[in-house]
Design brief:
There is one protein chain. By secondary structure, this protein is an all-alpha fold. It contains 58 helices and twelve strands. It has a three-stranded mixed β-sheet with strand order 3-4-5. Strands 11-10-12 form a three-stranded antiparallel β-sheet, with no helix packed on it. A two-stranded parallel ribbon has the order 1-2. The radius of gyration is 41 Å and the shape is globular.
């Protein structure tokens, strides 16, 4: 760069404000525009530091290499290994060096993380021979278990099984861990016969493998249906000689030659008359031994079954045993050839004579092409068989391929097969043109070739359709079906031929067929995606110009039926154009302008058209409207509609979203209605307006439905990375729920950000100001309106605030953590400063998405106690969930050690801290209790302290039933259920307040004592509990996580019998092998060598496993 630009560059680079804006734009700009709206998702763009999963890293080789060299943490899940082996990230055949590098690096530098499942099993499952060779050979020499080997025989190529056998032999039989007798007992021949794609090659490997590893015995059998499909004569002979074929006839006797030809014909497609005598004898022996006919696949022949009878067998025996016995019959009725010297010319001649005689006998029975081949080979005719008659279709296709017009002239008219692949045209353009001209001038061919044959489709592939001339006066039977189907299927070349050359046909016939084709309404959605067709715009333009010329001609001639037909086709073309995947607004405008010049203005407009208009403007609109949230929580659409599409059609006012509204431009070339204008209109149409007339009888169901829809608005704004739109909608939602009289979710303001905000005591005034600024709209009057009491007489117990609240879904909170910057997270919390449990839920969401900056912000600004550890963990065996326990615990240990110093008490500490919230709602709950229990209410009115104590005790008993979960939600009371003045006066009495306060303190003490007893009881079993942190990791096979636990919490955990059972059931044998090493158990309470009972239990579990019982040498 020149000096001036360099100076400017460094000025910008050193300006932190500008640099921040630049990087913000880079991070939030969508560089790729997706035409498919359902490809728009949160993972379209991820920040570099957030990329930790192997599946993301392997999509970019340079990024993978960068992370490896930096020794960054990489999260490797089982499903990612499967995708890697399957070639989903790096194609082995196209990029072998990259693939091999990644594999070697993962094995050499990240083996503990990478080997979190049976790698050889996965390589076999995905038929990845190259990966398998690396795994089972030195230096890794990984085990192949019996179930994996059986799977390989059943589904994989034979070369893969061969590689296993070779590696096993090279490693002194230490690779393949099988029970040979058990494996052979499973009849591998039959197992191989089920290998659909590699059947014969697998049989050859089993029968003829060069490795000293026999995989069958005399009891192994292949069923006859599989046997008859084999094409290799050597394999057939081996199976017959070793008697390895199940007999198709249950009696096992065939002396009467009662053949079962219809059920079990043998097909020999590859037999050639030049094959030696041995091969034809193998074929015949199959027929003799199993009494079945032989089918030679000669498609032009007649009677192409070789009918094997006693007489035929007798003739073959006579031929074999005649003139110098080089062959002999066997006791089982079959025939065979003795080994003879290859140099014995007389012997060879005798065999050739016998072969000819046998082929002669076969030709008499089979005929067809076999007869033709025999005549060509020996230059002899067979008197008993008439020469094959080639039908006219054969001559037609031969003449077509060669372009021989003279043969067509001598050929009788016929109706050849219309199969597309049979119609092969000459390679010469001149010959094709001559064919077209000839056929067009012959009335029969002119009619026949326009009747759904692929002739003109083939012609248009060679010469331009504009150069093809037809003679419509020769077409006596107009092909209405072919024309209609061509229009329906958008075969523009054929449409052009029809429109250009034909004027005089009955339009009503065409319309009746065409309207039947398009009569069934095609849904917009197919398997959660919009079906977009693709076609060539220049072809559409070519047809449209010809169509409009005919349209104008019909108007001039006042030919209303033809005018209606052309209008129907134009409308159909327009509908297809707007739904076409490669069309844009320019194409649509060009189409509209072109037809507008011919006074055509009747463009269709319905729900489908409206959807495609929105799609052309921005796929993001479709992403929003076609979402499952429009369905009820019970997964049933509204008003009885059965699809999202039908439900949308009932709610969307399409009269707003016209072509002009969506696409009109102003004088500056910008859209009159911006993206924000349209999306806000959609938000309003499909959410806020809908809620006023939505008919859901169940109020709770209706509330959940509305909440789900509003959450989807917020999620959508974040997915398309429009945080400004997100905050705008957030304010609208808050106003909506505040002023909507039907909004019934009212909550106590406990466990809120405002109650946990640091510096509360020192900056109380600031907090009050904050409350006024942010929560005035949310604050509502209490059901009993006790605020005025607080103003006059201070209560010993506080009167808690309540608000109308909105429930953010887990997905919404996760996306907030993913897409909002820290200053925006702060803004979000401020807007929800009095929402209960917000910080807890936000913490859980940020942990799930590994967004530790959000967690750090919470810890820095709030007196926060984590609600639990590993909230998202599940025992799923393969640990395929994106959430990573290791990162959560590592972050907390490195940054907030005191929080997790005592890992056993985390949930206990959280519960105890929440009990203080009872003081905020105790008085409210007591008033509710009195209001709902009239007898208690009357007793409390009595001034007797004994009765009041009894009422309070009864109240506390009712509270104890819900002590595990603090009451948060409040339902507003009816106006008629207000507490009377006498009770208020009693509550204002100092002694009454003191009594209530004392009861609360006693209640809290009892709660803590009970919780402590529960904790102490659970602590005794904590070490055995499979949900303790170490055993969670052990069962899931996460060695790195278990090592972290062991490092920071030495001698607090141990391996248990139940965890061994679970780990084995999830195929996580790798972690058991790791901790079987004594050195790796340092820091645990026990080890396999120190705990004899644990060791014996492990042996028992392994011996009961189908695979692990076969390999116990490592113990």
């Amino acid at each position: 760069m020149d000096n001036k630009n360099e100076i400017l560059f460094w000025k910008v680079f050193k300006n932190q404000y500008l640099l921040k804006i630049i990087f913000y734009q880079i991070q939030n700009t969508e560089w790729e525009v997706f035409k498919d709206p359902f490809r728009i998702n949160e993972n379209n763009k991820i920040r570099l530091n957030d990329v930790i999963s192997l599946s993301h890293l392997l999509r970019s080789f340079s990024l993978f290499k960068y992370k490896i060299e930096r020794e960054d943490y990489i999260n490797i899940k089982k499903f990612e290994i499967q995708l890697f082996f399957n070639g989903s990230f790096i194609n082995k055949s196209k990029e072998p060096l990259k693939f091999n590098y990644c594999l070697e690096i993962l094995l050499s530098k990240r083996r503990i993380d990478f080997e979190n499942c049976d790698l050889t099993k996965e390589a076999i499952r995905y038929k990845n021979i190259d990966v398998l060779k690396v795994l089972i050979n030195k230096p890794y020499s990984m085990i192949v278990y019996q179930s994996s080997f059986e799977h390989a025989i059943n589904y994989c190529p034979a070369i893969l099984v061969k590689e296993i056998l070779i590696a096993n032999e090279n490693n002194n039989n230490q690779i393949l861990k099988i029970s040979k007798n058990e494996l052979i007992g499973k009849n591998l021949l039959k197992l191989a016969s089920r290998n659909y794609f590699h059947f014969e090659e697998m049989l050859k490997l089993i029968l003829f493998n060069e490795i000293n590893f026999k995989l069958y015995n005399e009891n192994s059998k292949i069923n006859f249906n599989s046997f008859k499909k084999i094409k290799c004569y050597k394999t057939l002979k081996r199976l017959m000689d070793d008697d390895l074929v199940e007999n198709p006839n249950s009696t096992g006797e065939y002396n009467d030659f009662d053949f079962i030809s219809n059920e079990n014909p043998i097909t020999f497609e590859n037999y050639n008359l030049n094959d030696p005598l041995e091969i034809i004898l193998i074929i015949l022996n199959i027929s003799f031994k199993y009494s079945c006919e032989i089918y030679f696949d000669y498609f032009k022949g007649k009677n192409n079954y070789l009918k094997v009878t006693k007489e035929f067998k007798l003739k073959i025996d006579q031929i074999i045993n005649s003139g110098g016995s080089s062959s002999s019959g066997n006791s089982n009725g079959s025939i065979s050839i003795s080994n003879s010297s290859g140099g014995d010319s007389d012997s060879c001649n005798h065999e050739n004579i016998k072969l000819k005689k046998i082929q002669y006998e076969i030709a008499i029975i089979v005929g067809g092409r076999f007869y033709q081949d025999y005549k060509i080979k020996y230059n002899e005719k067979i008197k008993k068989w008439e020469p094959i008659i080639i039908d006219d279709s054969t001559i037609f296709f031969e003449a077509l391929k060669s372009g021989d017009i003279d043969r067509f002239k001598s050929l009788p008219y016929c109706s050849p097969d219309k199969t597309f692949s049979l119609w092969i045209l000459p390679s010469s353009i001149d010959l094709v043109i001559k064919l077209v001209n000839y056929f067009s001038n012959e009335p029969f061919w002119a009619n026949f070739l326009l009747d759904t044959t692929p002739f003109y489709e083939k012609v248009c592939e060679i010469i331009p359709v504009e150069e093809i001339n037809l003679f419509p006066q020769l077409v006596t039977d107009f092909p209405y079906v072919y024309f209609s189907e061509s229009v329906f299927q958008l075969d523009f070349n054929i449409i052009y031929l029809f429109i250009k050359h034909f004027d005089n046909f009955n339009p009503n016939w065409f319309l009746s067929i065409f309207e039947e084709l398009i009569g069934i309404k095609t849904p917009i959605l197919y398997d959660r995606s919009i079906k977009l067709e693709y076609f060539k715009m220049d072809q559409l333009l070519m047809v449209l110009k010809e169509l409009l010329a005919k349209y104008s001609k019909a108007i001039d001639n006042n030919n209303l039926p033809m005018k209606r037909l052309y209008e129907k086709i134009i409308i159909y073309f327009y509908e297809k154009l707007i739904s076409c995947g490669n069309s844009n607004i320019d194409h649509i405008n060009m189409f509209r302008n072109l037809v507008g010049k011919h006074s055509f203005t009747e463009f269709p407009f319905d729900f489908t058209t409206c959807v495609y208009y929105l799609l052309k403007r921005s796929p993001k609109f479709i992403k929003f409207i076609f979402d499952d949230s429009i369905l009820l929580p019970s997964n049933q659409p509204l008003y009885g509609y059965t699809t999202i599409e039908e439900t949308l059609e009932s709610q969307l006012d399409i009269s707003i979203f016209t072509f002009n509204y969506i696409f009109d431009l102003n004088s500056h070339g910008s859209y009159v209605n911006s993206f924000d204008d349209i999306i806000n209109q959609l938000f309003n149409q499909l959410t806020f307006k809908t809620f006023n007339f939505i008919d859901i009888p169940d109020s709770n169901l209706k509330y959940h439905y509305i909440t789900k829809r509003l959450n989807w608005i917020l999620q959508f704004c974040l997915i398309i990375k429009r945080t400004d739109l997100f905050f705008n909608q957030l304010l609208i939602i808050k106003n909506f729920i505040n002023y909507d009289p039907n909004w019934n979710l009212i909550k106590y303001t406990i466990n809120t950000p405002s109650s946990k905000f640091k510096f509360n005591e020192n900056e109380n005034q600031n907090q009050n100001n904050n409350d006024d600024n942010n929560n005035n709209n949310n604050q509502i009057n209490k059901p009993y309106n006790l605020n005025w009491i607080n103003e006059k007489i201070p209560l010993l117990l506080p009167v808690s605030k309540i608000i109308k609240s909105f429930e953010y879904s887990n997905v919404t909170l996760e996306l907030i953590c993913v897409f909002l910057e820290i200053n925006e997270i702060q803004k979000f919390i401020e807007l929800n400063f009095n929402i209960p449990n917000l910080l807890d839920n936000l913490y859980i969401a940020s942990i799930k998405r590994n967004k530790f900056k959000v967690v750090e912000f919470i810890f820095s600004n709030f007196n926060f106690i984590i609600p639990c550890l590993h909230h998202h963990h599940h025992h799923n065996g393969n640990n395929n969930f994106i959430y990573e326990m290791y990162l959560e615990l590592q972050y907390l240990l490195n940054n907030h050690y005191q929080t997790v110093k005592n890992i056993k008490t985390i949930e206990y500490d959280y519960k105890i801290s929440n009990y203080s919230n009872y003081s905020l709602i105790f008085l409210d709950q007591f008033i509710n209790f009195l209001n709902e229990n009239k007898i208690e209410y009357l007793s409390f009115k009595d001034s007797s302290e004994i009765l009041r104590n009894q009422v309070l005790d009864n109240f506390i008993i009712s509270l104890s039933f819900q002590s595990n979960e603090l009451p948060i939600n409040i339902l507003p009371k009816n106006e008629n259920s207000k507490i009377d003045k006498e009770i208020i006066e009693i509550l204002l009495q100092q002694d009454c307040q003191l009594l209530i306060k004392n009861k609360l303190e006693q209640f809290l003490i009892s709660l803590k004592i009970n919780e402590e007893k529960k904790f102490n009881q659970l602590e005794k079993f904590y070490i055995e509990n499979i949900n303790n942190p170490f055993l969670k990791g052990f069962i899931n096979g996460e060695i790195k996580y278990c090592e972290l636990i062991k490092k920071y919490y030495p001698n607090q955990f141990k391996i248990t019998k139940s965890s061994i059972t679970k780990a084995i059931s999830f195929d996580n044998i790798h972690i058991i092998k790791y901790y079987y090493q004594e050195n790796n158990c340092i820091g645990l309470i026990n080890s396999f060598k120190s705990d004899i009972q644990l060791f014996e239990f492990l042996i028992l579990e392994l011996k009961n496993h189908q695979d692990y019982k076969l390999y116990l040498e490592w113990l």
